[in-house]
Design goal:
- The chain has 10 helices and 12 strands.
- The protein is α/β, with parallel strands linked by helices.
- 36% of the residues lie in helices and 19% in strands.
- It has helices at residues 41-57, 72-79, 98-101, 128-137, 152-164, 176-184, 195-204, 251-264, 268-276, 286-307, and strands at 6-9, 21-24, 30-34, 61-65, 87-92, 104-111, 115-119, 143-146, 169-172, 190-194, 208-212, 241-246.
- The strands form 3 sheets. The protein has a 5-stranded mixed beta sheet, sandwiched between helices. A 5-stranded mixed beta sheet has the order 9-8-10-7-11.
- It is globular, with a radius of gyration of 21 Å.
- The longest helix is centred in the C-terminal third of the chain and has 22 residues, at 286-307.
- β3 (30-34), α1 and β4 form a beta-alpha-beta unit.
- The chain folds into 2 domains: 6-113 and 239-307, 3-Layer(aba) Sandwich (D-Maltodextrin-Binding Protein, domain 2); 115-212, Periplasmic binding protein-like II (D-Maltodextrin-Binding Protein, domain 2, 3-Layer(aba) Sandwich).
- The model is unreliable at 6-22 (pLDDT under 50).
Length: 318
């Protein structure tokens, strides 16, 4: 049990009266809700972080996948939870716009990795340039998968379509784990998905990687070109994964959880997994994490407006 996280309950409104109600956190299992189906990059990384916290806290960290309603089901569970640190949320970029973010307290950023542009092996394109040419030759005939309307995989591919001048149909899923069987089976031709979720299938031959969305090639994949250098100059996108608490969770508690997560991100097991994903541990403070999200949201809102991308907003109504 981590003895450094102490929460003090202060009774406000009565001058000088403070209730010495202190509790060591955590003294029972902690639930981490993931608003998406198992199998995606967020799920993989959250389970590693949960394992690290389990070892640090000497308490069970229960991962609870609650997919549905474009992430709203899981988000609402956490937003309505008691803000005491025992119900947390792991979230990926694309869902917490300015409206939804108001219901949560950012705790820690796990990482901000790039994505892989992948296709089914049956697609007759070995490069991004060839894919663009193929898509232009048969407008509206191919489909791309995303983890849902408004997710980074959706916005990134819509940006790709706009910059490349192609017409590819959007097929939203509840998570990349549900999309992979259709991708591998050829029912959906392509996607832009997290490196750690896509790479095993690219290595096995179930999918073919055409490029990485980072500004530079990944050290772990030196032979895979970036999308920008292989047919679409200026294209660059990243996602992010991180932890949140319900709004109103005490700042001292959030700071303690942040410290424990950041310490765990330095472990050899997580470092190797992040390296495979082309990312590094973020180690941001809660305030820095909030500022990071707000900058990312502003960037994507600008893209949505400039490219006239139609995004179905999933808004919490609490």
């Amino acid at each position: 049990m981590r003895k450094g996280i102490i929460v003090a309950a202060v009774i406000s409104g009565i001058s000088g009266l403070v209730a010495p109600a202190f509790a060591v956190y955590p003294d029972r299992p902690v639930r981490v809700v993931i608003p998406f189906a198992p199998g995606g990059g967020l799920d993989i990384l959250t389970r590693l972080v949960g394992k690290s916290l389990n070892e640090t806290w000497k308490q069970s960290v229960v991962i609870d996948n609650r997919a549905g309603a474009n992430g709203l089901i899981g988000m609402e569970i956490v937003a309505r939870a008691t803000p005491n640190g025992y119900t947390l949320m792991a979230m990926a970029s694309g869902r917490l716009d300015a409206h939804n973010l108001q219901f949560f307290a950012p705790i820690a950023l796990f990482a901000a990795p790039p994505s892989l542009f992948v296709v089914h092996p049956g697609v007759k394109a070995m490069t991004v340039q060839e894919f663009i040419a193929l898509a232009k030759s048969q407008p509206g005939k191919m489909n791309y998968a995303s983890t849902g309307s408004g997710a980074i995989s959706h916005l990134a591919f819509e940006l790709f379509k706009s910059m490349a001048g192609v017409n590819v149909n959007h097929i939203p899923y509840k998570g990349i784990g549900q999309a992979i069987p259709d991708l591998a089976g050829g029912r959906v031709e392509t996607t832009i998905g997290p490196v750690q979720a896509m790479l095993p299938h690219a290595k096995s031959g179930r999918l073919r990687a055409l490029g990485v969305t980072s500004a530079r090639r990944l050290r772990t994949l030196p032979d895979l070109p970036t999308v920008a250098e292989s047919g679409l100059p200026g294209f660059e996108t990243y996602g992010w994964f991180g932890m949140f608490a319900p709004r109103g969770t005490p700042g001292a508690l959030i700071a303690g959880i942040n410290a424990d997560i950041n310490k765990g991100l330095q472990s050899a097991e997580i470092t190797v997994r992040l390296d495979e994903a082309g990312a590094e541990p973020a180690a941001l403070s809660p305030a820095q994490y909030r500022a990071f999200i707000e900058r990312e949201n502003a960037q994507w809102e600008k893209v949505i407006k400039e490219k006239n991308i139609q995004v179905e907003r999933s808004r919490l109504a609490l």
